Amino acid sequence: MQNDISQTTIRIAQILINELKLDDVTPETFDPDLDLVDEVGVDSMDLATVALVLRDEYGIRIDEDDYPKLTTVRIIAEYITNKLRSDD
What we know:
The chain is mainly α. It contains four helices and no strands.
């Protein structure tokens, strides 16, 4: 379980880095506890784009009502892991 979250965390960081074109960090060095809005500069359009990429990659739907709760990469990873687990 922990390994799944770690892999998911790195993959989400990679998606954010690619979508936001953050050239100065890698998925392995991206702090998963950074506040995406206040510390990374993610806006609502960025988050919507990332949600679409995650939907395609993991086959889950992220409700727009949940966007405000997804404040860090770690929280997104936990959200995805819980969604995948609830679909079993």
